[in-house]
Amino acid sequence: MRTPKLTAVAMMSALLFPLTANASEADLQKQINELKARLDATTEVIESSARTDKPHGSSKVQMGGYGELHYNNLSGKGGAADKTEMDFHRFVLFFGHEFSDTIRFFSEVEIEHAIAGEGKTGEVELEQAYIEFDLNEQHRAKAGVFLIPVGILNETHEPNTFYGVERNPVEKNIVPSTWWEGGAAVSGEFAKGWSYDIALTSGLNLGTGGTTKVRSGRQKVGNAKAESLMTTGRIKWTGVPGLEVAATITNQDDYTQGLGTKNSARLFETHAVWQTGAFALRGLYASWKVNGQTSGYDKQEGYYIEPSYKLSDKFGVFVRYNEYDNQAGDTSQNGEKQQTDIGINYWPHPDVVIKADYQDQDNANNQNQNGFNLGIGYQF
Amino acid sequence: MKIVLIITLLSLSINSWARGTYQKPADFIAETFQGNTPKKEAIWLSGTVRETVTKILTHKPKGLRVRYWVHKQTSAWILEEIGKTEPITVGFVLNDKKVERVKVLVFRESRGDEVRHDFFTRQFQQASLNPDYKLNRHIDGITGATLSVRALTRLSRVALYLNEQRLAK
Questions:
Q1: Taking CA atoms, what residue in A is nearest to B117?
Q2: Do B85 and A62 touch (CB under 8 A)?
């Protein structure tokens, strides 16, 4: 069998052979020109062949992923527990497939906390699995399981894209991120820098207890009750480089899913991200109105603000102030939580990050977990 | 229903597309040289040139050479780089050793298309290359379009570097 090296030698010999004959200068020039033409033609064929390949191979299937290992070293005060743990918090794989230029599939499977099963701490979750159709050049539709278009981190949460080992507690406990539902959505651009998302999906099931955090109401599209669907609308402006301003509203008529007195749940969220040079600022506010809940759970809200500065391409520092309350409807409930984080990210490669931060809590119930966190994350 | 109607009406007013071919590469070249398109030339991606381009892109370049067009101090380059999964085709016009114009010609990704807008590409005007092959200015990103921004920034560095190699010949 002829090897590529032998083939190359054979080709070069064939190309060069005419030069070995005795020839005048004019003949040599002619031969050189012919050789140039042959070389150009050969290169065209090779490059043309390369261009027909899909990126990352010849398949229409794309694969990617991200993951993050965390080490928490927190001291509990006021009755709060100590937390000294090592946790492979998230291991995620993406798979996508292009059926055609206008129809594609995307999925995300996650293993949380490394091990799943009965009595185990972790979970295996299908966070995304949808088919997307291009309706025209500006608008697209999708159906399946997808991330709700809300907040800063819910849709973009690869560890190298944000500061802090753990995701901020406001988006975790109020938004509540990561939040995915099953249903259908349309999205697109309606003016330069302006985009929209409209979705009709499954929604929360907060039960009939009347004292439930919204995060606990996520059904994760596993035999999810769908008596009452949720509508979501988002509008986003990215008309200036480095700036994003967005607002999302969700509405669900009955968060008990037909099992109790009909009561609605509505979320309003807005945020801004501003990056200019090495400086960046993130700010987010989210507020739930959950009718019929008691003990202050009828209002759940929070905000955070996070300035950061990149010292170089590889190092960045940040500080973040978070405040949230899952019982904001009753100020006597001591539900208010405050947390300040300060830390550093180190990117040895744009897609790999090593993080360290210190967290200081000042909760209204005086139960605080203070200490440091370390992490390493990646995406590909 | 009203929202859908408003969005539909507004979309009709957009001239540019979110995904597709905004300008054919041949038209970009013809426009740059005002119809007097010079002869196409090529720079081979071999030896240290290939190594440096690999370093800038953080992966090996796909082609064996890069084609360009030059007239006096103006050179035009058509380059491609993958955003997340699909290649983005970008046209660069350089004047001497600085970027004069950047235009996204073909965008195939379903996200991150904001990089095609003038308000983003305008940032590259007058950018040049530092000795460490980085741009002499910061390019502000677009949230949610990180990979497309990264692709365009890398391509601008490649265009400036290859132009330097051309001038050094």
A1: A192
A2: yes
